[in-house]
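Instructor's aside before we start: the two examples that follow are unrelated to each other. I chose them only because their records fit on one page, so don't look for a connection. First example below.
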Amino acid sequence: MDGEQRDDATIRQAVEADVAAIIALDERNTGIAKPEYWNDRFHRFGGRDNRFFLVIDGDNGIDAFIVGEIRTWEFGSPPCGWIFALGVDPDARLRGLASRLFEAICACFRDAGVDKVRTMIAVDDNLNMSFFRSQGMMGGPFIELEKPLD
């Protein structure tokens, strides 16, 4: 099915039974198993007001997921949607799943009354940079600063 469009793939809220598949998909993409992180993310974001954890089912489990929330007044920013996780099974890429999830979470944000969406990615993450740019995202009004804590 690699590269093929599936019109029957449904976007839905994640349920607890999806967490193991999300952990496996994220590990496949990142090379790092993070079960504690993803269990925490599900319990913090699954089915809560202004927090969204969406998935697309595939033939062998979860093909893709996106996680985000509405944040208010951080750093003086009016309420806006934030996307902080996006994952697509490498075998399911080029089927438009990430675009469909992006559109779905943006609709959730709009329905909740916000009119902007933001994300943060590593400067060398070309795959995600290309994807988010293709969705119309561009540099925003904030600059990330950091300092190593020796």
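Example two begins here.
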Amino acid sequence: MKSATAIRESGSDRLFMFAVYGFLSLFGVLIFYPLYFILISSFSSAEAVIRGDVWLWPIDPTLIAYESVLKYPMIWSSFRNSIFYAAAGTLVSVSLTVMMGYPLSRQTFVGRGMLIWLILFAMMFSGGLIPFYILVKSLGMLNTPWAMIIPGALSSYSVIIAKTFFQSTISNELYNAAEIDGCSDIRFITSIVLPLSKPIIAVLALWAAVGSWNSYFGALIFLSEKNLFPLQLILREILVLNSISNSSFNMSPELLRRMEEIRTLLKYALIVVTSVPILLLFPFIQKHFIKGVMIGSLKE
């Protein structure tokens, strides 16, 4: 005996759902296939990739691309640099964002309105690259790891998101109750605010980590010593600066073809190597990230 009456879908409803699932499946394939193509190309022979024979699986599987990447002298040092820049940059960025976003969420904070307007102004307008470079140089951060950590540590957009989360999650009643019980501001932040803020902290951490890991323009501008280069700058050096130069015209066609094959394999292998750490990080914070990005979309 059925405990409930099943709701029968009409033909138009089933057709609509079929169209929705079909569209989502097509959209998923369009997103997933380029990533899959890069992966199988990194394991295929260079000749097969250049001919365009690689579509669904590796052709003439080989590990020569990864062997070449791991033998490149600057890969390991740049990989360590990128990990340090991403970890330190994420820690500094999340700390500063929380320390600025939480006070702005309190209605009793003096000067709150003026600071919010200044943050919005900074989010819409910039002084430009040259003043930015002069500022970093005047602070003595050129050719130091701090040039990759401090200048981009605080994002106006992240501060606004953090402020919105604190304002909607940490109510004034909760703060007043803690204050009546004799809870200090520091104790309130460490014991109540931060445990309740795991979703927004996860969002801010992932944004900062991905931005720091993928960044190369700052290193290109502020760093000239190779021992400080991040992985992305080494990737650029391999793929761009090692392209065919004027001296290549003196090389034989066979050597030029071989160089082009090596560059092709290195390109795909390096993309995989640089993407794996971030892809491995996301599953651990996926639950909090999904909850955090929904800030302001639902109202209970």
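The first helix runs from residue 11 to 42.
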